[in-house]
Design goal:
Elements (H helix, E strand, L loop, with lengths): L6 E10 L2 E4 L7 E5 L4 E5 L6 H8 L7 E6 L5 E4 L11 H5 L8 H11 L12 H14 L4 E5 L7 H13 L3 E5 L3 H7 L2 E6 L2 E5 L6 H19 L3 H10 L1 H23 L15 H7 E12 L2 E12 L3 E6 L5 H8 L7 E6 L5 E4 L12 H6 L4 E4 L2 E4 H7 L16 H13 L5 E5 L7 H13 L3 E5 L3 H7 L2 E5 L5 E5 L2 H9 L29 H28 L4 H4 L1 H34 L1
Parallel strand pairs: 4-8, 4-9, 6-7, 7-8, 13-19, 13-20, 15-18, 18-19
Antiparallel strand pairs: 1-2, 1-3, 1-5, 9-10, 11-12, 11-14, 16-17, 20-21
Helix pairs in contact: 3-4, 7-8, 18-20
């Protein structure tokens, strides 16, 4: 029999810092219903109130208006992004102090699978250890509704794979805030979008979010034109430039494909980068880092086996692997911070770098944004070009009016974005990024991808964000933990394919000195068939019909007394919603596929 919603927020309004975050005179009251098996992505820019909404759902915040209804005996658990471990000696002490504290053996079972020793003292625990402990604590409580705030932050790829597998088997509901596009695409079935104080919901997973976002902004733009009220959305729409940005990014991806093809021709079938090429002198003149048979070990353990690579000016190098596999060690050797045990690393004398690590240099809280970027003035040098500080803020998705605000009032994500703005202004020809995507929202990630694509120097990136790597790097260095380093032209997905389908022999006879053929560029369709064209034109209307049917059903189920008064009707309506969602998901996936074909024509 169908179950009532786990949680409902109805007519919610909340004031913070003298302004209405939700509801009030400027926004519609916030309404949200979460069903038993919902898999929801919560999307929104940094600072719009995503974490605050989580605390409202969890019952931590008392709102100014509205009601919060929870299914009797339902267990709601919040996996916080940065939990407070103060006052606890060990990670286990903290894990056992939760509201719904599970048994110690239950937490240890999950901790063992995540590879974390909970007897570790909290004071010396790393970000990754704290994150694993928080996940073990949350999952062991067996929640009916799990709220996850950036669950993949500080996790390596193995831990992310494990968490994805656990959530796929999970019988309850979850809502997740994450910048990890791959994680969201694999797991979510519906999206709730917090935008300018309003909460929208669409019964499509994150894979369909960007198309939905563009549709909403385009409709707002058309409505504004009709009402002659462009100023109401001008700041958001024109600065965001969704459609223009998408077109620019398509061009950048085409360029990335070309760069990958060029680098593929310089990598041998065995996976090591060639040091001798037909155009050796030209290649040498463009080389900025040359590693020749470098190795590194600690005690009896080999971290890096003999490894060689030429890094050219303009290369984007991604470094991936599990925690402890040697990613940071390899990065430090390539940048000259760490000497190899054997072999040599030659670095061009003209190379000047900017390093942004995952700990992030702290910004002084009592300084203003103007002081951080322009030392208190109106102008700053951006990689050798003079730019007004307010114009530069707009480049990084800030409202120029914040220029004289204190850093202390910015959200954690906004501080990270401000730090990126400051560091990217520095003149350099080497950019080193160690887990750069932590604490960034999706729009800032898009911006970061654009900045990297337009950067004229060389980029080295250590990251667990699979989608980010696929969109930015030309070469991936994959570490499997045995000391071997795979060199693959392309991103994370290309490395994964190589690992899953190892090359056991050549498929054709290569002539001495012959370069392997570069990977073909993505194929382009010539035109849509009659049936495809009909589907492309008619599916949007059908999707709207299904959405309307789902909305009507959800409105009926919102009655808290329905389940008790008429359980059969509740079950019938629930089944109807489920069927409509399945059909709508299929229709949206079909339309998105066709839309991509149309965009490629």
């Amino acid at each position: 029999m169908a179950q009532p919603p786990i949680l409902s927020l109805e007519g919610m309004a909340l004031q913070q810092g003298g302004k209405w975050l939700f509801g009030g005179p400027d926004h519609e009251p916030l309404n949200l219903h979460i069903g038993q098996r919902d898999r929801l992505a919560l999307i929104g820019r940094n600072g719009v109130g995503k974490t605050t909404l989580f605390r409202m759902i969890d019952g931590q915040i008392e709102t100014d208006a509205g009601t919060r209804k929870v299914k009797p005996h339902a267990k709601i658990v919040l996996l916080e992004q940065d939990p407070d471990l103060s006052g606890f000696a060990t990670l286990m002490d903290w894990a056992l102090a939760g509201e719904h504290a599970p048994q110690e053996h239950e937490i240890e079972a999950i901790a063992g699978q995540l590879g974390i020793d909970l007897s570790r003292e909290t004071k010396g625990a790393s970000g990754g250890e704290r994150r694993r402990a928080a996940i073990a604590r949350a999952l062991a409580q067996e929640p009916d509704l799990l709220l996850m705030d950036e669950p993949t932050n500080h996790l390596d790829l193995g831990a992310i794979d494990w968490l994805e597998g656990w959530l796929e088997r999970y019988k309850g509901a979850f809502v997740v805030i994450s910048h990890d596009r791959t994680f969201l695409k694999r797991l979510t079935r519906a999206t709730i979008w917090l935008d300018r104080g309003n909460l929208r919901r669409k019964e499509v997973g994150f894979g369909g979010y960007e198309a939905w976002e563009e549709q909403v902004y385009a409709e707002e733009a058309r409505a504004a034109e009709k009402l002659d009220a462009k100023l109401k959305i001008e700041a958001h729409w024109l600065e965001r430039g969704v459609t223009a940005r998408r077109k620019r990014n398509q061009g950048r991806l085409e360029k990335l494909w070309q760069m990958r093809a060029q680098r593929a021709s310089m990598i041998s079938a065995g996976g090591t980068a060639k040091l001798k090429l037909a155009t050796e002198e030209d290649f040498k003149s463009k080389s900025v880092i040359v590693a020749d048979k470098i190795t590194k070990g600690y005690g009896d353990r080999t971290i890096i086996k003999p490894f060689s690579l030429r890094i050219q000016r303009g290369d984007r190098i991604g470094i991936v692997g599990a925690n402890g596999a040697g990613k940071t060690t390899l990065l430090k050797m390539l940048t000259g911070e760490l000497e190899p045990d054997s072999g040599t690393v030659d670095i061009a004398k003209t190379l000047t770098g900017v390093m942004i690590d995952q700990q992030r240099q702290l910004l002084t809280a009592d300084k203003t944004v103007r002081q951080v970027l322009a030392e208190g003035g109106d102008w700053l040098d951006v990689r050798g070009n003079r730019k007004h500080v307010q114009a530069y803020l707009k480049d990084f998705l800030f409202d120029p009016k914040i220029v004289d605000m204190k850093v202390a009032v910015l959200s954690g994500g906004e501080r990270s974005r401000l730090l990126l703005a400051r560091e990217f202004a520095k003149a350099s020809n080497l950019l080193v990024l160690d887990e750069p995507t932590n604490d960034l929202d999706l729009e800032t990630l898009d911006l970061l991808q654009e900045v990297i694509a337009d950067y004229e120097g060389t980029v080295l990136i250590v990251s667990h964000d699979r989608d980010f790597l696929d969109r930015t790097v030309t070469i991936t260095l994959g570490l499997d933990g045995t000391g071997k380093v795979d060199v693959v032209a392309g991103g994370y997905e290309d490395w994964e394919k190589k690992r899953q389908k190892p090359v056991v022999g050549k498929t054709r006879t290569e002539k001495p000195g012959e370069k392997p053929a570069p990977p073909p560029p993505p194929s382009r369709p010539t035109k849509l068939s009659y049936k495809d064209q009909r589907d492309y034109e008619l599916l949007p209307a059908r999707i709207e019909e299904l959405e309307a049917a789902i909305a009507r059903g959800e409105e009926i189920l919102a009655d808290p007394d329905l389940y008790t008064a008429d359980p059969q009707r509740f079950a019938n309506v629930s089944k109807g919603i489920e069927n409509a969602r399945s059909e709508k998901d299929a229709a949206e996936e079909r339309w998105l596929e066709l839309a991509e074909q149309v965009e490629a024509l």
